[in-house]
Amino acid sequence: MYRHATVRRVLQVAAAGLIAGSSTMLLLPASHAAAASGTPAVIQASWFWQTAYEQANPPVAPPTTPPTEPSGVPDGDLAVAYTGAQDSAGNKTPAKMAALAFDTTGLTPGTQVSNFTFSLTLDTQPTATNFAQQDATILACLPTRGWPATPPQGGDFNDEPTFDCAGGVKPSINGNVYTFAIPTIAQTWVDDQNLGVAIVPDPKNTTAPFQVVFTGAKTVKASISYTPATPLPSQPPPPSTTDTGGGVTNPQPVTGGGISNPGPISGGVTSPAPVSPPVVAPSPQPSTSPVAAVRAASAAPSAGFWVAAALLGALMLIVSLVLGDPSPAVTAGGRSKLDQVLRDRGSDAFTVRHD
Questions:
Q1: Which of 182, 36, 185 lies closest to 107, judged by CA?
Q2: 259 touches 68 (CB < 8 A)
Q3: d(C-alpha 266, C-alpha 259), whole Å
């Protein structure tokens, strides 16, 4: 008896735990979207150049023709250089700077970028003029305006983007490979607009002139890790504006020079009086563009709810069988309580008649 009671007690505890776990699962929210990764391609690469003549004689007014100056940058390569110029605030200004933009297709608003890296490879060919590259202090910074594509020989410095290096990122250097980790900059491509990334001399910490030349966009390697945005429910179809015989419901303002809410036309064909009471059309409302249109949730429980409820009902049935009294209580001697009561009453009746 004691062994059976112990087993029964263990089953009761297990069943109670199963119910608690099942109920908890019903209350848990939907899990977040799984993390994703990719290797975005470069969709635009440019570099901009302010020659030594332009730095010494700003601005160069046409039709002045500056003397020929070699760039030391092979066609199609990218370059970053500093030659000693600075602005009125004391910030070092680049003689050459590069900019890259990456394909962000699929990164919808709400996506969270956890990591983004890209690597540039130093061009070691004799035609690429690198000097003092071991002392080069360069940063990956956030452009603050758009920038055009440039010819393979580089673009004019007047077209280069302005940039913000408050959150500038230094590269990690492994041999000839410079790798930048810029998840914060990449997040702005999702939250705002994709202005790419600018590679510039450090405006605060550059001291000595240098030039580094990197191979072109085809050799740039990038990788991204992110959590996709949770998709919004689909938007319901717009209200119908078709005349169904009872008047036009919810009319919209007419744009493009049309007349909104026109009155009856004199001399035209008038509509017959409706049999049913007239439907009053509401006043036209101005069209608005919501930030995020969300469909009203249905009052009916979802299919998942009914599946979970059925599973919980089955669990309750199993538990009721486990917790229920499996057999009538048995007294000492192997008799049930009912049998003992009947025997006791019969014995009492016999005693009364005998007396």
A1: 36
A2: no
A3: 16
Euclidean distance between CA atoms 281 and 38, whole angstroms: 52
**Residue 286 falls inside a structural domain:** no
What distance in Å separates the CA atoms of residue 251 and residue 243, rounded to the nearest whole number?
A: 10
Number of structural domains the chain divides into: 1
- The reply to whether 75 falls in a domain is yes
Residue 115 phi/psi, 5-degree rounding, is -160, 140
Residue 67, domain member (yes or no): yes
State the Cα–Cα distance between residues 5 and 234, nearest whole angstrom: 56
Q: Which residue from 107, 203, 217, 98 is spatially nearest to 161, judged by alpha carbons?
A: 98
Give the model confidence (pLDDT) of 13-42 as tens digits: 565 565 555 555 544 444 456 889 999 999
pTM, two decimals, is 0.58
Grouping H, G, I as helix, E, B as strand and the rest as coil, residue 41 is coil
Q: Which domain does 99 fall in, by range? A: 36-227
101 forms beta bridges with 44
Between CA 278 and CA 280 the distance in angstroms is 6
For 309-328, what is each residue's pLDDT tens digit? 777 777 776 766 655 555 54
